[in-house]
Design goal:
Transmembrane segments: 41-61, 67-86
Order of helices and strands: HH
Keywords: Membrane, Transmembrane, Transmembrane helix
Number of domains: 2
Distance between the termini: 69 Å
Radius of gyration: 34 Å
Structural class: mainly alpha
Number of helices: 2
Number of strands: 0
Length: 89
């Protein structure tokens, strides 16, 4: 038997679980159902996916705001904004 409670699941009752003076056929061993992890797994996946979605939406929003600000600055103040990437030499 692979699991510690396999004997109880197979309806084999250890002698220490049977009260003295009781016939073993009259003893009913009650066990709790094993825990289900489906809800916890689905909750974790949902939270991970929603967090990733929020990060992507914020990245697109900040990119749009930066592009709009860079386009609006020359018309508002008369100054120009230029972005240069650093080049390695």
């Amino acid at each position: 038997m692979r699991y510690p409670d396999a004997q109880l699941r197979a309806n084999h009752r250890p002698s220490e679980l049977i009260p003295p003076g009781v016939h073993p056929g009259q003893v009913v061993v009650i066990q709790a159902a094993p825990p289900s992890y489906a809800g916890k797994i689905l909750l974790t996946l949902t939270l991970s996916a929603s967090t990733a979605l929020v990060i992507v939406v914020l990245a697109f929003a900040l990119q749009t705001i930066a592009a709009a600000a860079a386009a609006a600055i020359p018309t508002v103040g008369g100054a120009s904004v230029s972005l240069h990437l650093a080049r390695k030499r």
